[in-house]
Amino acid sequence: MDAMEVLANYVVQTKYEDLPRDVVERAKYFILDTFGVAIAGSTSPGTVEIIKLVQEWGGKPESTILMYGTKVPSYHAAFANSVLTHARELDDTHDVVRGHYNVSILPASLAVAEANVGVSGKDLITAVVLGIELMFRVGKGMPDYLGWHNTSTLGAFGAAAAAGKVLKLNPKQMLDCLGIVYSQIGGNHQCLVDGALTKRIQPAFSSMAGVRSAYLASRGIDGPRNVLEGKYGFYNVYGRGKYDREVIVNDLGGDYGIRTLSVKPFSSCRFTHPAIGAALDLMNEAPINPHDIDEVVFKATRLTLDLVGRPFEVGDNPEVSAQFSIPYTVATALLTRRVFIDDFTEASINRPEVRALTKRIRVEVDESIPNQILPVPLTMVIKLKNGQILSKEVRTIKGSHEEPLSQKELVNKFGQCMEYSLRPFSANKIDQAVQLLSNLDEIENISTLTESLVA
Fold first, then answer.
1. How far apart are alpha carbons 326 and 383 in whole angstroms?
2. How many other β-carbons are positioned within 10 Å of the β-carbon of residue 119?
3. What is the dihedral sign for C-alpha 89, 90, 95, 98?
4. Distances from the Cα of 299 to the Cαs of 193, 269, 440, in angstroms?
């Protein structure tokens, strides 16, 4: 039996009542975070154009585009809401089995839930948890980093599983659903390297594919059976045949991937976060005048250098260029002692003092780091003009399960995100939204959620 069939059976058979309480609470924590970053994404550059295009496509009014209020076919809603969620680089991620998870999974689940009568908050929570679990295990089984964008490739599987769970697919249909979505998987890191807006669209393709695959499977369309381990299965085509079956299928229902998912406190690529954290910590411990800095050197992995460590240059999309730059994000952290959404506007990016400081920040590869695919450990060394040397080593990342954001910090982040909403939110409305999402398991019909938050 292919490992994907084992996972498909597990997804179908698992009920809300089977989920440990801490897993349910963790799901609500991340769903709250994801709604916040999606609403903040409603005013991000490039988003308006994409939403207008989706609105022009038209079609059956099934599911809501967040903040815009338009109802479109469920697969188009999943696409649009995924774009919103990823636009600010603030959505959750996993620091080991890398990728953004809810960006594809929650929009797919929500779109199908809204399009079908009688889907409850508990149903949505179950679908999200199981979509994350399947995505996590497929990714965990293939440790090699080969240039594919895990958020897109693995996210398609997660979105399909979650959408299929909402539709209550049977075991055969669920495996068909996952086989069908395998035919649509793509996404790579070239858009990151080139600073293209495609970065925020790739997960949306996966979310849309997940919804379409679930509906196709529900109508009896079949897919390949050996999705992961077949001759041309995912691991042989995308992973060069390197995978660990035991990691994929062992302890299902015991070791949940959502427990080690991470929230992002800074609106930039996760590989910049250790460097930002080091800069903020050092400024708190030994405040210095940024103008007294001669140079800043980071010793990090080769992957960190490739993804976010190049000298800062403003490309065709300044926001993306800045989000994927240690020199820019660290210069911002040193000068303003924060890194959030409004630090990535063109006006902020073009501040002379920031641009000048970026030229004194560089990244070097530390080949002695044993695991070259993680963003930590990382060492920051600051040399001041008077010859003084300051250093800071980072081994954990803010927002990870090792250094988590508290519920209060998460709610504060949600409130900050509301400041960038397409439509204004009063303090009372924000409190209502937090309460509604924090008590998601008490909602009888998911349309209550979309009507309260996005209409």
1. 17
2. 23
3. negative
4. 20, 18, 43
Report the candidate in 176, 142, 221 with the shortest Cα–Cα distance to residue 11: 176
Question: Mapping DSSP to helix (H, G, I), strand (E, B) and coil, where does residue 421 land?
Answer: coil
Per-residue pLDDT of the chain (455 residues; tens, 9 = 90+): 999 999 999 999 999 999 999 999 999 999 999 999 999 999 998 899 999 999 999 999 999 999 999 999 999 999 999 999 999 999 999 998 989 999 999 999 999 999 998 999 999 999 999 999 999 999 999 876 678 899 999 999 999 999 999 999 999 999 999 999 999 999 998 987 787 889 889 999 999 999 999 999 999 999 999 999 999 999 999 999 999 999 999 999 998 999 999 999 999 999 999 999 999 999 999 889 999 999 999 999 998 999 899 999 998 889 889 999 999 999 999 999 999 999 999 999 999 999 999 999 999 999 998 877 789 999 999 999 999 999 999 999 999 999 999 999 999 999 999 999 998 888 888 999 999 999 999 999 998 888 877 64
Give residue 377's Cα distance to chain centre. Answer: 21
The token duo for 357 is 């400081």
Yes or no: say if 438 and 32 are a contact pair by the CB < 8 Å rule.
yes
Q: Which tokens in the block code for residue 14?
A: 């698992």
Domains of the chain with bracketed CATH: 3-264+417-454 (1.10.4100.10), 270-394 (3.30.1330.120)
CA distances from 75 to 47, 79, 159, 232, 311 (A): 17, 6, 11, 27, 39
Question: Two tokens at 58?
Answer: 């038209």
Residues contacting residue 100 through CB under 8 Å, at least 6 positions apart: 86, 91, 92, 93, 151, 155, 203
